[in-house]
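I hope you will forgive my troubling you with a question about protein structure. The matter concerns a single protein, recorded as an amino acid sequence and a row of backbone structure tokens. Please examine both parts with care and let me know of anything in them that strikes you as inconsistent. Thank you for your consideration; the sequence and its tokens are set out here:
***
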Amino acid sequence: MFEGGIILSKKRAFLFILPALAFVTVFLIFPAIWAIYIGLTNESLTGIFGLNHQFVWFDNFIKAFKDPWFRSSLQISFKFVFGSLVGQAGLGLLLALLLNNKKGIIKELVSNIVIIAWIIPGVVVAYLWVAFLDKDFGLLNSILEILGFARVNWFHTLPVGVIIIFNTWRGTAFSMLLFMAALQSIPPSYLETADVIGASGWCKLRDIILPLIKPQILTDLILLTLWTFNVFTPFILTKGGPAHMTEILPIYTYRVAFMGTCRIGQGAAISTIILLINLTLALIYLKMLKRK
């Protein structure tokens, strides 16, 4: 390995990446393996199986797929992930296109607002949205009442829509920043030539911009999918309600593992299923990325 005129041996190069490997092993690989192991047992946090758990092998996985609440949670999770992907990636791309090559206070103001929404802790953002959407004291319903409209219980009327909008508002900044950087990498001569021949804005977007930033779009979708499938913050807004209508997989896992009979083994099995879903989706995205 050659770096700055200095030849590094493989052993020395390995030492440089060793801290990162140790971090990944301790905080990612080992917990994943441990979750798989616990998922093969009937361990619980209470009762006799809390001390003397036994291997039940794939019984927890079979019970999960037979559980109608799991299937419902899986469907809600896919709706939530799809809606969040469309919202975050779509809004992020729109903002990036509008702000690209723009200068002045408007660009700075919009960028700062979007980034602030991203860096504020998720718990704080969730409580802000609860205060904004509350039927009796929420700001949105107060404005609607002033305008002559009836108050709306948004958490009951549009439960999945509420958590999708919340997640979109929360995470659009990442997509916007990624796409803004991608747009800056497009040679200006391409767009200038398109202007000369009279190409419309839609044609430039379809034939020049989107094909050139396709790798960044797929990267964005990979990361957003993995993050959204594992997000737990909607629990603060709805606690999975009403009537389990917003119980995405992480919330369902929490309910199974830490509420009621505290079936930690079955909760770990569900976590393993989530891991496999994430892995499958990531591999699909990576295969699409290689075809670019």
Observations:
- The first helix runs from residue 10 to 39.
- The CA atoms of residues 39 and 269 lie 4 Å apart.
- The chain has 14 helices and two strands.
- Strands lie at 2-3, 6-7.
